[in-house]
Specification:
By secondary structure, the chain is mainly α. Helices cover 48% and strands 7% of the residues. Strands 1-2 form a two-stranded antiparallel sheet. It is elongated.
């Protein structure tokens, strides 16, 4: 009989108990979950020297805002930068990206509690 080593990756995905909605530029946005584009923006920051942290914050914030919108209603970088001023940029991004940062912390905590056993190779 073969041993089975099951790692439940679904357990790593944070579950939200309530919907998170923000308003920006007179529009409402559901930012309850985190699209993959958010993580990709921050990963790109680590590998592309021409892609700044500011670029990652803008692109990931736009990705969060667009996640529940139909294609014709989505916003872009230009719209985002036109409604956010320089003094509030970092705070606005922090609020929009909060589920991403909370999720990363929760996943790290879960991984510390349940470390998968190393896989044996043949």
């Amino acid at each position: 009989m073969t041993k089975r080593n099951l790692i439940d990756l679904d357990a790593l995905i944070p579950k939200r108990e309530e919907e998170r909605v923000v308003t920006l530029g007179g529009k409402e946005f559901n930012v309850s979950s985190v699209p993959v584009g958010v993580s990709l923006a921050f990963l790109r920051r680590q590998t592309d020297p021409d892609y700044s942290l500011t670029d990652a914050m803008i692109d990931s914030s736009v990705s969060m805002l667009n996640q529940s919108l139909p294609e014709g209603e989505q916003v872009d970088r230009a719209w985002f930068l036109s409604v956010v001023d320089g003094t509030s940029f970092e705070t606005v991004c922090d609020v929009i990206l909060l589920p991403f940062f909370e999720g990363k912390a929760e996943i790290k905590a879960n991984l510390k509690r349940v470390k998968p056993e190393p896989q044996k190779t043949l």
